[in-house]
Design brief:
The chain is α+β, with helices and mostly antiparallel strands. The chain is 36% helix and 20% strand. The strands form two sheets. It has a three-stranded antiparallel beta sheet with strand order 1-3-4, covered by helices on one side. It has a two-stranded antiparallel sheet with strand order 2-5.
Length: 197
C-alpha cells in the first residue's frame, strides 16, 4: 500500500486538466470583461454619433417642440438599435450668447466677491433669482447657443458578480454637443432687468 503513492505522484496524466481548471475562471473573467468594455465603447460611439447628428438636425429644423421630439425619438432609435433595453433620456439648455454662459453679474457692495442677499444683480434668464448658471431649459430660438445632452443607462450584457457591492452591473453613458441655432428668424432679445433683493 505504501508503494502506490510514489507511483501515483509520478503519474503526469491528467495534470493538464487541473491546470486548465485553475486557469479557466481567470480567462473567462478577462474575456467577459473585455467583451463588456468593447461593447461599452461601441454604445458610446453610437450615442456620440447620434447626438452629433441631433445637433446638426436641430440647428436646421428650428426649435419647435415637434421637431425636438422627433429628434429625441431618432437618438433613442439609434441607441436602441444597438441596445434594445437601454433607457435613453435627453436634456437641453440654451443661452442667448456665448458671453451669457457665466454667472449673472451683480453689484458687490461689500467687496467680498460673493453675491449676498440684498445686492443687485442682472436677471439674464428672467426667473427673478440670481443664478450661477443662467440657463433656459429649452432648445432656444434663432442664434441661441444650445447644449444638447443624451444619457443612456443599460445593464451589462455579461454581468460580473458584484464583489461587496463595489461593482455595479449598470452602465451609464452620456454625450453632449454644443451648437448655435441658425438665424432663420429674429432672435428674441428681452432686456436684462436689474433686481435688488
Amino acid at each position: 500500500m505504501t508503494g502506490g503513492f510514489p507511483r501515483l505522484a509520478r503519474d503526469r496524466r491528467g495534470a493538464t486538466i487541473i491546470e486548465f481548471a485553475l486557469l479557466l475562471p481567470v480567462m473567462l473573467l478577462m474575456l467577459f470583461s473585455l467583451f463588456d468594455l468593447c461593447f461599452q465603447v461601441y454604445v458610446q460611439s453610437v450615442l456620440t454619433g447620434a447626438v452629433q447628428r441631433a445637433g446638426r438636425d436641430l440647428t436646421l429644423e428650428g426649435g419647435t417642440q415637434a421637431s425636438v421630439d422627433a429628434i429625441h425619438d431618432k437618438v433613442t432609435a439609434m441607441v436602441r438599435a444597438v441596445m434594445p433595453q437601454a433607457s435613453v433620456t435627453h436634456d437641453q439648455k440654451s443661452y442667448s450668447s456665448f458671453s451669457a454662459i457665466a454667472p449673472e453679474r451683480f453689484v458687490d457692495a461689500n467687496g467680498n466677491h460673493l453675491r449676498d442677499p440684498g445686492e443687485c444683480f442682472d436677471d439674464v434668464n428672467h426667473n427673478g433669482i440670481w443664478d450661477t448658471d443662467p440657463v433656459i431649459s429649452t432648445i432656444g430660438g434663432p442664434n441661441d447657443i444650445t447644449v444638447y445632452t443624451a444619457h443612456v443607462a443599460y445593464s451589462q450584457p455579461f454581468p460580473l458578480i458584484p464583489i461587496n457591492g463595489v461593482m455595479s452591473n449598470e452602465v451609464a453613458l452620456s454625450s453632449t454637443t454644443v451648437f448655435k441655432n441658425q438665424p432663420f428668424g429674429t432672435q428674441t432679445v428681452t432686456p436684462v432687468q436689474q433686481i435688488c433683493s
